Amino acid sequence: MGRAVTVATCALNQWALDFEGNLERIFRSIGIAKSKGARYRLGPELEICGYGCSDHYYESDTLLHSFQVLEKLLQSPATQDIICDVGMPVLHRNVRYNCRVIFLNKKILLIRPKISLANTGNYRELRWFTPWSKARHVEEYFLPRIIQEVTGQETVPFGDAVLATTDTCLGAEICEELWAPNSPHIEMGLDGVEIFTNSSGSHHVLRKAHARVDLVNSATAKNGGIYILANQKGCDGDRLYYDGCAMISMNGETVAQGSQFSLDDVEVLVATLDLEDVRSYRAEISSRNLAASKVNPYPRVKVNFALSCPDDVAVPICMPIQWRHHSPEEEISLGPACWLWDYLRRSKQAGFLLPLSGGIDSSATACIVYSMCHQVCLAVKNGNADVLADARRIVNDETYIPEDPREFCKRVFTTCYMASENSSQDTCNRAKLLAEQIGSYHINLNIDGAVKAVVGIFSVVTGRTPCFSVHGGSSRESLALQNVQARIRMVLAYLFAQLTLWARGMPGGLLVLGSANVDESLRGYLTKYDCSSADINPIGGISKTDLKSFIQYCIENFQLTALRSIMSAPPTAELEPLVDGQVAQTDEADMGMTYAELSIYGKLRKIAKAGPYSMFCKLINMWKEICTPREVASKVKHFFRMYSVNRHKMTTLTPSYHAENYSPDDNRFDLRPFLYNTSWSWQFRCIDKQVNTL
């Protein structure tokens, strides 16, 4: 009898509403799977239309075009003699479901709707879909005419069922169901399902990959079985980067691992595994077998097809491997770099422009672009024709081959140091040296003329001339003068992004990169509509602490020695006058808190769901060795005042790569008011009462 089954899973760089491109990538993955002997192919969640369609799911066009793509798949000889499992939205009895459509040889075997919908953080699936709540129940689904004409079927099973082939039994999960407390694989495994599949749309968060891997391995460690996970990869049109990591696990151990970050649009994993290993593993788990004898059975869809071959004794079987996880510094180097590449090629622009100040944040952003250039050159060296074609189109040269990251960086990356009378020579030198080492096209300019012109207009109209505090002005005057400098830099950044290539006799325009980190955004330590206002921001979801570690990683791995002096310099906005030619303004002094403290406040506010009083209660224990309760109270109050006063700035925050679970992104991740009663009188009174008691 057949024992060795060959199955395939994949990570696809799908793009929301790119039906043409999505279909082509699905076909490529099926072709690779078949060429490697696979008899079953699993794809990512909602792969036909792309996961990130958002409110486009409401449109009948999205449903129509998804079925048109399905029609092409069913008709094609490429999908013959392999069970294909694809994802798309389906309307059943006027209710929209997130579904898997499983077919074989022009016949749809089962449409399986998602049972547990993702509805936290960045996910809003309940806005567009309804969960299937009828456990182990199947209904008839009436196929659209265009599908009936291909399959010859009028209706197909729709609901919570499993597939019974001639040699094994398969059951599907969809993304969130793996993370749910009552995951379907538990009951399915008890009912004899030997192969579990999971099609995901799971995005990257720093230090998250191990959680996904552990869940998959633990799913089969307790119950035995084969678990196959597919995932979306890349930027499909918004702030998220889907990080692949397709994998196959058996009996609690990983047997195949896909890459977390790569520029390959299509990645297919194939594994051959012995079903008898599953059966023998389960045989000695008596607690599982007792529970299995009482389980409520699933409806089974019988499939006259085998995933194994009759004569398979000599077929080599895949063995367990050790999963290799990236360090957080590697994740920062690779994830945002891949996201930037997707954004650049899909927006059809000619490169990036970055206001490079010589500080840690803008330098880290520059290093991420440099890492992107490394990834492009490596992909081309490894024979990636898609990346080569995109690179040639971006640089407008049909014969170009990117081989040297510094040379490619020169073509696609412009950096600009915008000096003022408040800038030091040190930061100017640091920016210039870093630009030389990464190879960017670097511009030095001075903004004093523009600043004087703008302030001059105000003086003519009002008859008053504002001054900095060190020259006798009020804090209002000083802040306004700082903001003028910051906003003029934003205006100039966009001007140079639009016309720099024109001035150099080259076609196209540049995307402006922002470089505000997640902690500064949380505190509101930025000028509204300054250089934090850009097209996209690769570090907007990364903490200052992690960025410092990333800078050290770049020194060691990219040999960017210019970063050493940047690392050792205190962070400064350089918006106030110099004192004896030296910088007197520092970020942490301006903010009234350290970056390390900001990271703690951010995690407590968002992840621990702490308001002012709860945050105070947690911190008096966390900081009992370094702060008195009264000092903790003062720090917490200052943070919440500053956070609430500046929350309005989050409504215009530049779209940023999502990397941290305490991101203050107002778009859809961190939904809060932006007009607060900033006195927090009731909350602060509760803190004061507790301080007095202590």
Automatic annotation (TrEMBL):
<comment type="pathway">
    <text>Cofactor biosynthesis; NAD(+) biosynthesis; NAD(+) from deamido-NAD(+) (L-Gln route): step 1/1.</text>
</comment>
<keyword id="KW-0436">Ligase</keyword>
<comment type="similarity">
    <text>In the C-terminal section; belongs to the NAD synthetase family.</text>
</comment>
<dbReference type="GO" id="GO:0005829">
    <property type="term" value="C:cytosol"/>
</dbReference>
<dbReference type="GO" id="GO:0005524">
    <property type="term" value="F:ATP binding"/>
</dbReference>
<protein>
    <recommendedName>
        <fullName>Glutamine-dependent NAD(+) synthetase</fullName>
        <ecNumber>6.3.5.1</ecNumber>
    </recommendedName>
</protein>
<dbReference type="Pfam" id="PF02540">
    <property type="entry name" value="NAD_synthase"/>
</dbReference>
<dbReference type="InterPro" id="IPR014729">
    <property type="entry name" value="Rossmann-like_a/b/a_fold"/>
</dbReference>
<dbReference type="InterPro" id="IPR003010">
    <property type="entry name" value="C-N_Hydrolase"/>
</dbReference>
<feature type="domain" description="CN hydrolase">
    <location>
        <begin position="5"/>
        <end position="275"/>
    </location>
</feature>
<keyword id="KW-0067">ATP-binding</keyword>
<dbReference type="Pfam" id="PF00795">
    <property type="entry name" value="CN_hydrolase"/>
</dbReference>
<dbReference type="InterPro" id="IPR003694">
    <property type="entry name" value="NAD_synthase"/>
</dbReference>
<keyword id="KW-0547">Nucleotide-binding</keyword>
<dbReference type="InterPro" id="IPR036526">
    <property type="entry name" value="C-N_Hydrolase_sf"/>
</dbReference>
<comment type="subunit">
    <text>Homohexamer.</text>
</comment>
<dbReference type="GO" id="GO:0034354">
    <property type="term" value="P:'de novo' NAD+ biosynthetic process from L-tryptophan"/>
</dbReference>
<keyword id="KW-0520">NAD</keyword>
<dbReference type="InterPro" id="IPR014445">
    <property type="entry name" value="Gln-dep_NAD_synthase"/>
</dbReference>
<dbReference type="InterPro" id="IPR022310">
    <property type="entry name" value="NAD/GMP_synthase"/>
</dbReference>
<dbReference type="GO" id="GO:0004359">
    <property type="term" value="F:glutaminase activity"/>
</dbReference>
<dbReference type="GO" id="GO:0003952">
    <property type="term" value="F:NAD+ synthase (glutamine-hydrolyzing) activity"/>
</dbReference>
